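Tip: read the tokens left to right.
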């Protein structure tokens, strides 16, 4: 089978992972049939009409949309069929485990998870084509924060929860972008495969699950084994809702680690789009500054942000992305050590390394509200890329 040219170092990967390399490569040309069909069927309606159908289906159930196309009904048949393995209490506990990380979770998400996604020279192309992240990075970062907050909040992933709704809307956004990019003469399918394909979708799910856990470890934040399992459970269900193939939805952290390593070992180094996206993200605080005082603070924070991202990504990727080297990287290591000692002390005192979730919840509420600036994140299907 001939794979897109972005899929590299296959002989070396086969020596370690065997036939899974070829199986994974096939997902570079596979999309999300249910969401793709729904978006295609909805496309005959004006944007307000199709968005109304989706909103009613999410808020009241698909039976509240009698005029909805069969493809939309098929999609919601899958969404409303909760897999047997889903445990609602574990979903809430997984979200609480992340929320209690508070500021550290936000730092890991921005300086590690998102940037690690940009490092994929094939997977970053839909973002690079949109231009939104480089031109409007602060807004996009705030929307991502709102997405994660909704998924992690109590009841967020239950059928009427905000996280469930956000997952479905983002899934339809992906399908819409996929269709539009496929029609673009600029899309290089032989090189990149299908836009927002299953290979990249599985990687994105890992960015919000496995990479978050890895990043929190590197920041010295401690989670119990049960918390880690619950967090993986949350994002396994998230993968189901957002359209990731069942073969690529990881149950355990060990499975996620193997898949991440396989994804990483079959990609080329970051490209110019990777560098542009990463720098736009890390410069977003300066971009969003509204006063001279805010700008001075943001410029100081930017230096620390680059050091933090270097610490989390590792020296090689940081150099590939053109990060500056500053003495701040030593402060990050000290910060990690302090967190580890604080976590050990808390574990000895309470028996569990738990902190209050409400503190982290307040942090996420403040960060998201401040970032969105009164304009809600709606995750509506776009009309153009």
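Filled-in amino acids:
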């Amino acid at each position: 089978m001939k794979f897109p040219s972005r899929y590299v170092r296959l002989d070396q990967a086969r020596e370690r992972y065997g036939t899974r390399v070829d199986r994974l490569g096939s997902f570079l040309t596979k999309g999300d049939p249910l969401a793709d069909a729904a978006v295609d069927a909805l496309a005959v309606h004006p944007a307000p009409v199709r968005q109304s159908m989706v909103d009613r289906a999410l808020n009241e159930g698909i039976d509240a949309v009698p005029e909805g196309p069969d493809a939309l009904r098929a999609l919601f048949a899958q969404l409303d069929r909760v897999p047997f393995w889903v445990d609602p209490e574990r979903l809430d506990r997984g979200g609480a485990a992340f929320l209690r990380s508070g500021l550290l979770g936000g730092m890991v998400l921005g300086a590690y998870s998102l940037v690690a996604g940009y490092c994929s020279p094939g997977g970053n192309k839909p973002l690079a084509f949109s231009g939104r992240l480089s031109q409007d990075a602060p807004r996009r970062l705030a929307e991502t924060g709102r997405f994660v907050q909704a998924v992690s909040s109590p009841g967020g992933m239950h059928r009427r929860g905000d996280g469930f709704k956000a997952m479905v809307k983002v899934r339809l956004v992906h399908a819409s972008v996929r269709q539009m990019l496929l029609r673009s003469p600029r899309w290089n399918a032989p090189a990149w495969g299908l836009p927002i394909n299953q290979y990249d979708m599985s990687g994105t799910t890992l960015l919000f699950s496995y990479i978050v856990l890895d990043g929190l470890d590197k920041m010295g934040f401690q989670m119990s084994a049960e918390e880690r399992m619950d967090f993986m459970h949350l994002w396994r269900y998230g993968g189901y809702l957002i359209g990731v193939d069942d073969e690529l939805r990881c149950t355990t952290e060990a499975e996620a680690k193997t898949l991440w390593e396989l994804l990483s070992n079959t990609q080329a180094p970051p490209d110019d789009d990777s560098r542009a996206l990463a720098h736009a993200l890390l410069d977003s605080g300066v971009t969003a500054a509204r006063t001279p005082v805010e700008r001075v603070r943001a410029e100081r924070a930017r230096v620390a942000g680059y050091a933090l991202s270097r610490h989390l990504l590792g020296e090689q990727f940081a150099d590939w992305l053109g990060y500056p080297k500053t003495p701040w990287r030593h402060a990050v290591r000290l910060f990690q050590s302090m967190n580890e000692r604080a976590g050990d002390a808390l574990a000895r005192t309470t028996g569990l390394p738990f902190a209050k979730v409400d503190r982290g919840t307040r942090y996420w509420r403040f960060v998201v509200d401040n970032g969105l600036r009164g304009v809600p994140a709606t995750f509506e299907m776009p009309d153009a890329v």
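The mean pLDDT is 91. The radius of gyration is 21 Å.
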